[in-house]
Write a structure and sequence with these properties.
The protein is of the alpha/beta class. The protein has two domains: about 150 residues, NAD(P)-binding Rossmann-like Domain (Rossmann fold); about 110 residues, Dihydrodipicolinate Reductase, domain 2 (2-Layer Sandwich). About 35% of the residues lie in helices and about 25% in strands. It contains ten helices and twelve strands. A seven-stranded parallel beta sheet has the order 3-2-1-4-5-6-12, with helices on both faces. The protein has a five-stranded mixed beta sheet with strand order 8-9-7-10-11. Strand 2, helix 2 and strand 3 form a beta-alpha-beta unit. Helix 4 packs parallel to helix 5. The longest helix has 16 residues. It starts with 5 loop residues before the first strand and ends with a helix. The relative contact order is 0.15. The mean pLDDT is about 95.
Length: about 270
Amino acid sequence: MSDLPGIVVTGASGRMGQMLIRLIQDSAKARLAGAIEREGHDWVGRDLGEAMGGAANGVLVTDDPLVAFSGAQAVIDFTAPDATVAFAKLAAQARLTHVIGTTGMGADHIAALKPCARHAVIVRAGNMSLGVNLLTQLTKKVAAALDTDWDIEVIEAHHNKKVDAPSGTALMLGEAAAEGRGITLAEHRESGRDGMTGARAKGAIGFSAIRGGDIVGEHDVLFAGQGERIVLRHIATDRAIFARGALKAALWGQDKAPGEYDMLDVLGL
């Protein structure tokens, strides 16, 4: 078992963290090398297996990334933007593959990852699923085929605990649409409509966000023309698709040169 790539999971107590931990423990291709939680969390210092309500597994939850990273080859990170940047700096020092599924990252956060990618593999994606990454490619192709007489709207729905909007996946789809049209999303993004907004700007890429219940993730890309509409849709019913994609990315990165990658690279799309 010791020759298998060791993977650390950040945010171990979260829904995605626990799902990743179980997936890695059941995998024949990787081993669980560590689990990280924030300072002061009641899991810190406890056996991970017992903290998750099962049998002891010998992995102690830590709030010190350096301790966890010392015996690992990769880290999978679905946390918060500031935490992800901090993890990236330490992962680069340790030369770990850093898989980032964190959403809500701003331009400053993303820019802070670039120097880290000179020393380590960083795989960052708004969504780790095969289906969504295929949808991204389709969105780019359709946007390239249609002119600005067609309005583009990205409509996303998630559970009521999600704290950022639009979702990382929605922004990824918006970027794909912008790339297909040969424009920048930053200059053509339209979201948060309320009140007397006036007519929609021609060529804008709009975003609409829905939050409710336990929705895992639903994304539509609507192309609305005069007298007709095209809708590209992806519906996720199980968060396990994101965990499986993240594990695939962590394993894929083991023999790659330092740099910034995404799931299109991992999936060979």
